[in-house]
Amino acid sequence: MERLTVDYGKKVKLEFAIYPAPNISTAVVEPYNSILTTHTTLEHTDCTFMVDNEAIYEICRRSLSVDRPSYASLNRLISQVVSSVTTSLRFDGALNVDLNEFQTNLVPYPRIHFPLSSYAPIISADRAFHEQFSVNEITFACFEPANQMVKCDPRNGKYMACCLLYRGDVMPKDVNAAIAQIKTRKSVQFVDWCPTGFKVGLNSQAPVIVPGGDSAKVQRAVCMLSNTTAIAEAWVRLDRKFDLMYAKRAFVHWYVGEGMEEGEFSEAREDLASLEKDYEEVGADSVENEDY
């Protein structure tokens, strides 16, 4: 990432960051790796779409009826989000969203660049035969924690920006009606210094699924990218796991043996604590303004 910053300083750099989960863990030191990676890439990426393996794992079990999701199951679900984000690069649409626009519309401050991803509908093939999802239903579903790619509750935070990327058989008037309804919901709160504007992308290309996969083919789908203060819950959870190990300096010798310095751990942890505080302050500004 540093090399990209040096060689392509003017280019917008988007990242998909996948964070670990205890249910499907491959290494004990995953909390270390996650914190160290976040710290080193923080200043080299313009927008980072977070994906939490724990949230994906639960979606596979609950919505796709997969008892023991494999990495293939998780990756297929993540690929739908990546596909939606890059649809406008590959197909012409009624309302395309350029990749540069994600940074412009979702990142109010340079460090606050971790949008939350949601996707709907996520259903298994056997349910798809007797269920049709309207634009209204899939839009509302994106605001439900059950369809989010990171375990956090947006009802505990405030939205700073929101981008809805629709695919398939979707009419603009239906989108406008759905957004108008969303704005009236008490559970969807925006910070007061940012208007409740929704960036919308429309593409007539229907979602494609992997043949023989867990997901059903649907007529329409939506991917929501939202910058919310609630994402800080994910940092708190990750920092706690890091702290438990680092308090005992467990496994640190392996990293030192590879040429790292122990101080890099403390530096990375402090940077994440600062990031937590940044999100807290963004939310607090809004609360203070409401009091006046």
Features of the shown structure:
two-stranded parallel sheet, single chain, 6 strands, four-stranded mixed sheet
Structure described in brief:
Pfam families: Tubulin (PF00091), Tubulin_C (PF03953). The chain is of the alpha/beta class and about 290 residues long. The chain has eleven helices and six strands.
Topology, please?
Elements: H1 2-7, E1 14-19, H2 30-41, E2 47-52, H3 53-63, H4 71-90, H5 99-106, E3 116-120, H6 125-128, H7 135-142, E4 159-168, H8 172-183, E5 198-203, E6 220-228, H9 232-246, H10 252-257, H11 263-291
Parallel strand pairs: 1-2, 4-5
Antiparallel strand pairs: 3-6, 4-6
Helix pairs in contact: 2-9, 2-11, 3-4, 7-8, 9-11
What does this structure look like?
The protein is of the alpha/beta class and 292 residues long. The protein has a single domain (2-235), classed as Tubulin/FtsZ, GTPase domain (Rossmann fold). It has eleven helices and six strands. It has helices spanning 2-7, 30-41, 53-63, 71-90, 99-106, 125-128, 135-142, 172-183, 232-246, 252-257, 263-291; strands spanning 14-19, 47-52, 116-120, 159-168, 198-203, 220-228. The strands form two sheets. It has a four-stranded mixed β-sheet with strand order 3-6-4-5. α8 (172-183) links the parallel β4 and β5 (198-203). The chain is globular and about 55 Å long.
